[in-house]
Amino acid sequence: MSAINYVFILGSTAPVVLHPFDTGTAFESKDVGDLIGRYGTGETPQGADAIRTELYKAMEKSARRHFLDKGYYLRVALAATAFVVVYLFFSILVRDPVPLIDELVLASLAAAAVFLVSERKVLSSPQHLESVLRLRRAIDGAYFSESRVVDLVESWRDEALALGPAAFYKTDTVEVKLNAGEMEEAASLCAFLAERWRSKPIVAELYAASQKGGVPGALLDKAARRLGAAENSMVLAYLRLIPLVLSGAV
Tens digits of per-residue pLDDT, 185-208? Predict the structure, then answer.
């Protein structure tokens, strides 16, 4: 059975697109699996072609970064070796009227050339090209459909936009339950959102405080100031989704 990779589209007019191409795992496996797009019920997200183009660009950028990162230190070592060899060659065997300066310039140029050539070799490798083509085909074949999970997150986000930080204390009037498929989808969405805010310590602070049973109003206000209203509302929706995923409710 093929794995499922989700693409989430939050919002319709200025959508936030969350996808699996920010992690290296998407470029390692030869079995890409099914790429499924999910959006909230109601209006179809505007600019579907633009969203697909965004996915192409994100995938190609991440693939480039992934494959270049794999051999980065080896390329640095090769460039450093080229620098030393060229510098010693011109210092010892070639006499010039301006000592030191010419050797440094030529050695630096040699090191830069070796580094750039090694990068080009990586990007023209069969592994990189095959990975990009495989994922482009997956994006071409992606099927987009409505999602109850995205619906929930968007409704919580809209509620947080209307109420501000106080929305954190609001509870659902009806208990929310997810089936097995929705649980898998919600877990994937939580993982994407966690990756989105990995460099935002304030989000981790909010989660840690919520796990202890309460979030001080001062911390909620601080998060709203640092993240801005739109992003903070998504964080508050994310904090409401996490317990559903952890509970394993069906």
Answer: 999 999 999 989 988 999 988 888
H or E element at residue 114: helix 101-123
- Tokens 């001080």 identify what position? 216
Sign of the C-alpha dihedral computed for residues 48, 49, 52 and 54 taken in this order: negative
Q: How far apart are CA 250 and CA 242, in angstroms?
A: 14
Q: Which two tokens stand for residue 199?
A: 């460099």
Kind of pairing between the strands at 143-146 and 34-39? parallel
> What pairing do the DSSP bridges indicate for beta strands 34-39 and 4-10?
parallel
Phi-psi category of 33—alpha, beta or left, where left has phi over 0 and alpha has psi -120 to 50?
A: left
Task: Report DSSP state, residue 141.
Answer: T
CA neighbor of 38 nearest in space, from 152, 190, 143: 143
227 contacts: CB under 8 Å, gap ≥ 6: 200, 202, 203, 235
Whether residue 58 contacts residue 195, with contact meaning beta carbons closer than 8 Å, is answered with no
Distance CA 139, CA 61 (A): 15
- Chain segment 27-45, per-residue pLDDT in tens: 655 566 678 888 888 766 6
Residue type, 107: A
pTM: 0.76
Closest of 16, 17, 15 to residue 7, by C-alpha: 17
Q: What count of other Cβ atoms lies within 10 Å of the Cβ of residue 100?
A: 10
Those residues with Cβ within 8 angstroms of residue 150's Cβ, 6 or more apart along the chain or in another chain:
8, 9, 10, 38, 39, 40, 189
- 81's enclosing H/E stretch is helix 72-92
The residue to which tokens 């480039």 are assigned: 64
* Residues linked to residue 80 through DSSP beta bridges, in sequence order: none
